Amino acid sequence: MSAGKKAVVFVLFLVFVGFLFYMGGNKLGITGQKKTTDMSGTMLMDLPQAEGFPIFIMFYSNTCAICEKLMPDILNFHKELGNKAYFLLINTDLPETERIVKDFRVEGLPTFFWITTDRKIFDSKVGGWPAKEIHKTILDLIEFSNGKRN
User: How confident is residue 5, by pLDDT bands cut at 50, 70 and 90?
Assistant: First the structure.
């Protein structure tokens, strides 16, 4: 299988896993107009494979040129750091992701969330951020999360 096909299969797998845990999970810790940064007790807690790991989330679309440009970098970050952080890529084109997109209040693409091991939002960004900045923030999240464990 070519590297491109492997990348597509990997992204589809992540979307499928995200859909599965979301459909079985609880509502996010976001209610009404008030947005909380505490994600404990939410669907993110229903990810046993992410237990003890910080989470990087990217909301993207197949029709988003910026998303398409960033995807190879994101997949490389996963290859490099996937043993230190859990990566979740959510395709907003899929009807089954509508609820999670709404709950996270995604209004532009791509949208990124960095979630700590205790399920609090470490950082979030919308739009075309340089890949180096995304990578640095993932590293900062991992370092912060490792400090929380010590």
Answer: low
